[in-house]
Specification:
homotetramer; 9 strands; alpha/beta; 3-stranded mixed sheet; 6-stranded parallel sheet; 13 helices; 292 residues
C-alpha cells in the first residue's frame, strides 16, 4: 500500500529520510519553515507545501522530523498549523527527538482531534538516514505501528516496538545517553593516549579491532585522526538531547553520574563555539580541560 | 621455533593463556603462589615449578600474568624470586596490567641483569583468553617484539606494537578507561530504560542492532537480562584498574571527567560487596543510587 | 504603619514568620490547606481564613510562603484562589523559594490584575525564622520594597535589595547552591576524618575554630556529633531546591560542577528514605557510598 | 623555656612563621635551598645555615615547612641532609602538608635515629601565618606535643591534638578537602549570580551577612570583587593538596564526590596557567567552563 505522506522538517535528517520514502514509491509533500531547504526534495519529485496545514490536508500520513518541542508546537498549534485543518483519521508519526513527557503532552493534545498518534524517533544520524539503515523506535497502538511498518522501513532497516506512545521517546533517551557516554569515553581515551605518547591511529586501530569496536567508533575514527569534525550530528543538538536525557532521568529517579559528567563537558563546548561541528568535537573540549 | 616458557600467574587469565601456549607446541612450566591453581595445567601436560626462580632458570621466555605491582615485586625480587637466579639473555614478557610508571620501574630494575624486557598487556577477558583471541598490546625493542610475535599469537589474534617498553601499559590504560566508561554507560542506559518502563530485552536488542552494538555489550547482555553477574572480569580488579588509569591520567595531565564519575560508582560497589562478581555488576550500584 | 497581612502557608517557616509579624503589631489572617496547621497562630491571636481569597480580600498585603510552584498556582489560580476576588492595589510578596523563571511567570500573571508584586525569598531556616533573624532577598519596584521594608524586618534582620522582580529568586538560587555545597563539603570532610580515625568532635572543633567556621556549621555540628538529624530544613526540600538551581544554572549557561555532584548525592538520599530528615543527613548518603 | 630552633623552608608560610618564633624569644637558624629567601630572616636576626645538617646539629628542635615529599626527602636523606649528622634526642616537627601515609613513612625512617617525631601541619595561609593566628594540627606522643605547645603557640592561636603521628596530616586532609570545596562553592555561586545579572558586591554581602559567612569568604571577597587574585595560597599548591586528599580518601575508602568534581576544575586551571595566582582564581576556570 502506498501513502500520501506529509513530511515536515527538512533538516540534516529529514531530507534524506523523505527522499527514501519517495524513492520507495510513496507520494510525498514536504514542508519546511525555510522554503529553500525543500528544493532538493522538489527536484527529486516531491510536492512542496507552503504551510503545515496544506501538507497535512493533502496527506493520510503526517511525519514530523523537527528540532524539538518549540518547532513541533509551531507546526501543530500556531497559525497555519496542522490543527487549523481537519486531521481526523490521519496518522501522525513524530520522529523528532523529544522527551517522553513532551510526547505524552502532544499526544494528549492531538488525539481529541481524531489523529492516530505514533511516536517513532530514530537511532542513527546522517549516514544511516541516507542509507535507509536507521533503527526506528516506534510506539503507540500496536496495530497502528504494524500498519505503518512498511512505510517506516523505507527509512530504516529495523523497527523496534517499544510500547505505548511515549515509550519510543523513552528508548531514544536511553540510546542517546549511551551514545553520548560512548563518544565521551572514546574522546577521553584518545586524549589520554595522545598525552601518553601513543599514536592516534594505533589507539583507534586497537579499539576497533577488539570488543569495544562498534559502528559509532568506526564512523568517528577519521575525525579523531584528522582533528576535523565535519557535521554528521551537530554538537549543539547533542547537548540539547543530553539535557532532555537528564531531565527524563531526574523525573524517573534514575542515577546517571556519567551522564552528568558528560553534560558539563558538552556545555563547556558550547562556550567554545563548537555547537555547529560534529559532536565528536567533544575531543576539543577535553583538550582545553587538560594540561597544556 | 618453539620456546621453553615459564608462565607465572595462574589466575582467571593466566590458566587459559598458558594452556593455549602449550596447545600450540611450546614447552611450559607454570608457577603460582597457591599450587592448587597449577593443577589444571599440570593435567594438561605442563611442568610445575615450586618457585619462580626454578621456572625462570629452566625457561628461555618468562611470562608474567599477575594481579598487580605487589605480586610482580614478590616473584621478581623476593626470596626465590627471578633475580635470585641468572636471567641473562632471557626474555621477560610482562602481560599483567600495571601503570606505565611501574612498567618503566620494573624494566629499569631488570635490564641491568641482562633481561630483554617486553611489556605486553592484553585487551580482552576470560572468554577471549580461552579462545586465543586476545588483542596483545606489545611494547619494547621492536626486533624483540617481532621475534616473540609467533609465541604471543598462540594467545591472541592480534599483536599491536605500541612503542618502547611502557607504551603497552599506556595503551592498556587507554583501553581500560574506555572499557569502564562503556560498561558504566550501558548500565546507566539500561537502568534508565527500566525505570521508564521499557523491557530489558528490548533495550539490549535496540543497542545491539545499531551503531552502538559491540562485542562487549554482546558479552554482557545476558548478565543484564538475568540480573546475575558470573565473573568474567572481577569487579574488584576493574576498580583497581580504574585507579591505575586515574593516576596515569593525572600524571599525564589528561582530563577524564567520565573516568572520575566512574571511579566513584565502582568504589561504592566495593562497599556493597560486589568485588567478586563480574564488573557488569556496576548495574547494581546504579540501582542503589537511584530512587526506589 | 501597621498592615493587615494575609499570610498564606503555615509550614516550618511560615508559622514562626507569621508569629513575628503578629508580635510586632500587625494584624494577621492566616491560611493553610490543612487547617490544623493554623491552630498555633490562632492561639497566638491570628485570624484564620477558610480560603485564600478570603484572606486576600481582607488584607492589604499578601505574603506567600509555600513549598513550590504547584502550591502557589493552587492558591493563586484555582477555586477560591486569590484571583477569584479583587486584588487591585494590594501588595503581594512571594517569599517561597522558586526559580527566577517561575517568579517572572507569576508576576506576569498577577500584575494585569493591579497587584504590586514583590519577590522576597529568605536565607535562613527554622531557627532564624523563629528569632526573626532571616536575611530577606527582596526584589521588585524599589519604592515598593522600601515601603515594605519595616514589615519585612519583623521577620528578618536584614533586607537585601536585589533588583527587578525575579532577582530575589536569582539570589536565592545563588545562596542555595552555596548552602548545598558547603553542607556536602562538611559531610565529606567529617566522613573522611572519621574513616582516618579522627574524633568527630575534634574535627568539628577544628573546623569551627578556623577560617571555615560559620553559622551553618555551628548549627549542624550537633547533628553530626550525635548522628541524628532532627529536621530544620528537610532533605527533600533541599533536593528540590538543588534541582531549581541546576535548571537555573543551565538556562544561564553557568558551570556548576560541584552542584551536579551534589545533586546526585541528594537524589541517592531520597532513595534511602532520608527525605523527611534534616538535609545534614547527606552525611548518611556518603556513608553508604563509602567502603564498609 | 626557650629553644634553639632549626627552621627549614622559607616559602610563603615558612618566613612569617620563623619570624614569629624568633620574635617571641627563641633562637632560630634558618635554611632554604635558595639562600636569598633566608635574607629577610637574617635581617630580622636569624642565623643562616648553609646546609640542613648544619642547622639540625645546632638546634634542639627542627621544624620543616616544605612544599611536599620530594623537598622533605631531600633535606632529610640526601647529601648534607639531617641524617648525615647526629639527631638523637632532638625533636623534629614536620609542619608541611603531606599525606598521612607519607608522614608515617618519614616517621618510621627517623625514629630509629632517636628523633622525637611530631606531625603538625597548619590550618590557615599567609595572613594568619603573619599574625601568628594559625590553627596547628599536632600529633605524635602526647607528652611531646604538650612540651612543644608553647613553641607552637608562637606561630598559632590554637593547638589541636589529633592523636598519634600521622593524625595531624589526616586532619589537614580533612580541612583541605573542606577548604577546596568551600572555595569552589563560593566561586560557582558568584559566577552563577553574575550570569543571572546580580551585582558581585550584593552577592558577597548577602553571603557574608548570613549563616554561610566565614573568615575564608571574607578573605577572598575582595579578590572576587576586583577579579584579581594576588597570591595568599597558590593555586598550584592547592591542586597538589587536593591530589593528596583524593589519594588519602581513596585509601580510606571514603566517598568524596564533590572532591572529585573539584579536582577536575583545578586541574583544568593549571592548563590555563593559573598556577601561581591565589587559589580563588578557580573562579576563572568556571568562567571558561560556562557559556560565553
Amino acid at each position: 500500500m502506498t501513502h500520501k505522506v506529509a513530511f515536515i522538517g527538512m533538516g540534516i535528517m529529514g531530507q534524506p529520510m523523505a527522499k527514501n520514502v519517495l524513492a520507495r514509491g510513496h507520494e510525498v509533500m514536504v514542508f519546511n519553515r525555510h522554503v529553500e531547504k525543500t528544493l532538493p526534495l522538489a527536484e527529486f519529485g516531491a510536492k512542496v507545501a507552503r504551510t503545515p496545514v496544506e501538507a497535512a490536508q493533502w496527506a493520510d500520513v503526517i511525519i514530523l522530523m523537527l528540532t524539538g518541542p518549540e518547532a513541533i508546537d509551531a507546526v501543530v498549534f500556531e497559525e497555519n498549523g496542522l490543527l487549523t485543518g481537519r486531521v481526523e483519521g490521519k496518522t501522525l508519526i513524530n520522529m523528532s527527538t523529544v522527551s517522553p513527557a513532551y510526547t505524552r503532552q502532544i499526544k494528549n493534545a492531538l488525539e481529541p482531534h481524531g489523529v492516530v498518534f505514533l511516536d517513532a524517533p530514530v537511532s542513527g544520524s546522517k549516514k544511516p538516514a541516507e542509507d535507509g539503515s536507521l533503527v526506528i523506535l516506534a510506539s503507540g497502538p500496536r496495530e497502528a505501528v504494524v500498519e505503518m511498518e512498511p512505510l517506516l522501513l523505507t527509512m530504516g532497516k529495523k523497527v523496534v516496538y517499544c510500547g505505548d506512545a511515549g515509550q519510543g521517546s523513552a528508548m531514544k533517551m536511553v540510546i542517546n545517553l549511551l551514545l553520548g557516554i560512548m563518544m565521551e569515553g572514546l574522546c577521553e581515551a584518545v586524549n589520554l593516549g595522545q598525552r601518553l605518547g601513543l599514536g592516534t591511529e594505533t589507539i583507534l586501530d586497537t579499539v576497533l579491532s577488539g570488543p569495544l569496536g562498534c559502528g559509532l567508533f568506526n564512523l568517528k575514527a577519521g575525525m579523531l585522526k584528522s582533528g576535523t569534525f565535519p557535521t554528521q550530528f551537530p554538537f549543539k543538538h547533542m547537548t540539547k538531547d543530553i539535557r532532555f536525557v537528564l531531565q527524563t532521568a531526574d523525573n524517573a529517579g534514575a542515577a546517571v553520574p556519567a551522564g552528568h559528567a558528560l553534560f558539563q563537558v558538552f556545555r563547556q563546548g558550547l562556550g567554545q563555539d563548537l555547537g555547529d561541528l560534529d559532536f565528536a568535537a567533544v575531543k576539543e573540549v577535553l583538550e582545553t580541560m587538560s594540561d597544556r
